[in-house]
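Revision sheet: structure tokens.
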Amino acid sequence: MSVVDTVKMLELRTKKAAGLIAMLRKEKAELQEKFDLVHAHNAELEEYVESFTSSTKLLEESIANAMENLSTIEGLDDVQLLDDAELELEAADGFTSGDAFANEEVDLDALLEDSPSL
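Predicted:
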């Protein structure tokens, strides 16, 4: 191989290397943008978690205070519930325990009767 051929081959390889370097720099910049975006979203999610945690603590404290206030009322447990209220409480307990999924029938006429007229 002659010197001229060697120089041409070196020049070609140099161009290929320069193209590869440019492509890698572009890819690095794109990845950096994605990383910055993910980092910003992560910071935002951390703020949401902190807000949720503090809200949850406030709710727990409020519930504890309400329960404490209710426990100071003497004779509260001895009060009889109205029949309708007792049935509603039983239905609510059944709903939270998953009984609502067992009955999938909906009485549309009853829903329309119970709904307020506009």
